[in-house]
């Protein structure tokens, strides 16, 4: 198994600099590229991300990116306003597939985004990135334009925590990486399995179920492995990722959702209770608070009638 992973790392891991934007534009040959930013109260960063993509990847007669959509999942700040002013098309989560009530969660937004985008390649980018580089898009999209057999590409990067390099990604190191190494060792070579920056062929995305919450990245990666095989997956080094870090309790809830997503894929039999109890200190000592763990998954998009009709049209 280790040798297979090592061969995959040598064959399917690249630096972003290997594929300049000009080369990728020439390789498009009619393919359309959509970029999706899921956003919830990200007014501090979303406009700058959109501006970089518009300026570096969408300008001129031959753009790399054809469509840039921000999906607002209920922001109470000016996220939508700032994104639109910077040049993105903004769509509210609840306006997509209104017959089906939306549930909170990142995976829900990504799943619905397939209904309001048209690209053959869909690139997801988190909206809380600081010092954003266009390589997060061009790097992940690149192999899909130049390697016909590649279908799913994750970004890899260093994640600093404050001034400490490599100390971000705590849920990755404590939960996701052990799960993958133990249960899906072919995926052990992914540097950032939970990273929110990745590009996928639509023809694959529409075949995959989407966990509605924070388990979406793990779920998509595992299901892609089983659907198209390891050699169809790749990763690209895009440098450094800076973003807003969550507090420890939020990370605990993320970890529970990710474990639940893995558990669903390991067995459809008995499951642990889908709740997580955490503790907060109050005036009278520690107080328990119990949170539901995301348990719902959306079906493959190609099973949705509205999507099938849209694609047929």
From TrEMBL:
Which UniProt key words apply to this protein?
A: Glycosyltransferase, Magnesium, Transferase
What is the required cofactor set for this protein? Mg(2+); Mn(2+)
Q: Which reaction does it catalyse?
A: an NDP-alpha-D-glucose + (2R)-3-phosphoglycerate = (2R)-2-O-(alpha-D-glucopyranosyl)-3-phospho-glycerate + a ribonucleoside 5'-diphosphate + H(+); (2R)-3-phosphoglycerate + UDP-alpha-D-glucose = (2R)-2-O-(alpha-D-glucopyranosyl)-3-phospho-glycerate + UDP + H(+)
Q: What class of enzyme is it?
A: transferase
Q: What is its EC number?
A: 2.4.1.266
Presence of keyword Transferase? yes
Q: Does the keyword Phosphoprotein apply?
A: no
**What is the recorded name of this protein?**
Glucosyl-3-phosphoglycerate synthase
Q: Which family does it belong to?
A: Belongs to the glycosyltransferase 2 family.
Which PANTHER family does the protein's record reference? GLUCOSYL-3-PHOSPHOGLYCERATE SYNTHASE (PTHR48090:SF10), UNDECAPRENYL-PHOSPHATE 4-DEOXY-4-FORMAMIDO-L-ARABINOSE TRANSFERASE-RELATED (PTHR48090)
UniProt domain Glycosyltransferase 2-like: residue ranges: 34-130
């Amino acid at each position: 198994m280790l040798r297979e992973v090592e061969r995959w790392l040598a064959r399917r891991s690249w630096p972003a600099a290997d594929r300049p934007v000009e080369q990728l534009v020439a390789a498009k040959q009619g393919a359309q590229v959509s970029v999706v930013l899921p956003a919830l109260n990200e007014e501090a960063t979303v406009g700058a991300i959109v501006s970089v993509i518009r300026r570096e990847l969408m300008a001129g007669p031959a753009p790399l990116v054809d469509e840039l959509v921000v999906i607002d999942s209920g922001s109470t700040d000016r996220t939508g306003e700032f994104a639109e002013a910077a040049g993105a098309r903004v769509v509210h989560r609840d306006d997509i597939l209104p017959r089906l009530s939306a549930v909170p969660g990142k995976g829900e937004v990504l799943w619905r985004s397939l209904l309001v985008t048209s690209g053959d390649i869909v690139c997801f980018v988190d909206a809380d990135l600081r010092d954003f580089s266009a390589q997060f898009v061009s790097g992940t999209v690149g192999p899909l334009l130049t390697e016909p057999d590649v279908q799913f590409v994750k970004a890899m990067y260093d994640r600093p925590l404050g001034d400490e390099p490599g100390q971000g990604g705590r849920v990755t190191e404590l939960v996701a990486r052990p799960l993958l190494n133990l249960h899906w060792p072919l995926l052990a070579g992914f540097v950032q399995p939970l990273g929110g920056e990745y590009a996928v062929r639509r023809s694959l995305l529409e075949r995959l179920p989407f966990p509605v919450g924070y388990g979406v990245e793990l779920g998509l990666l595992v299901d892609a492995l089983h659907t198209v095989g390891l050699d169809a997956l790749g990763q690209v080094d895009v440098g450094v990722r800076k973003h807003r870090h969550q507090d420890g309790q939020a990370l605990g809830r993320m970890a529970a959702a990710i474990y639940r997503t893995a558990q669903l894929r390991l067995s459809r039999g008995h499951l642990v209770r889908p709740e997580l109890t955490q503790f907060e200190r109050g005036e009278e000592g520690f107080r328990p608070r119990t949170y539901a763990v995301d348990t719902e998954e959306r079906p493959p998009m190609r099973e949705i009638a509205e999507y099938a009709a849209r694609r047929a049209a």
